[in-house]
Amino acid sequence: MAVVAGVVFFTVRALLALLPALTTGFPIKKWSAAAALAAAAFYLLLSGAEVATQRSFFMTAVVLIAVMVDRRAVTFRTLAVAAMMVLTQPRKRWCTLASRCHSPRRSGWWR
């Protein structure tokens, strides 16, 4: 997720930097962050929105939103926001995850 957002961010920023009229008068860094956030959201939907992908999306979103509002992105803040977002989801998702992880008879890991 972060790789996709990073590639989109730097590609859009490099392409916008090629136009001198844009670099002097417009916030191309914020535009690049918005494009990267949109690409990360598309990747989240494309990948099926599993729990780990959601956590990664929320962490990436906090960093990109911090770039858009000219704030520093602190690592522990992003982790805390991602944890709150993932842990406040309905319990049904966690039960299905736990049933996949903790049932050795169904998964057949002993063979």
* Unreliable parts: none
What gyration radius follows from the Cα positions, in whole Å? 18 Å
Structural class: mainly alpha
* Helix coverage percent: over 70%
Quantity of strands, as a count: 0
Instruction: Count the DSSP helices.
Output: 7
Strand proportion, as a percent range, falls in under 5%
Order of helices and strands: HHHHHHH
How would you state the average pLDDT, rounded? 79
Distance between the termini: 34 Å
**Given the C-alpha coordinates, what overall shape results?**
elongated
Q: What would you note in describing this structure?
A:
- This protein is mostly helical and 111 residues long.
- Helix content is 79%, strand content 0%.
- α3 (28-47) packs antiparallel against α4 (51-68) and α4 (51-68) packs across α5.
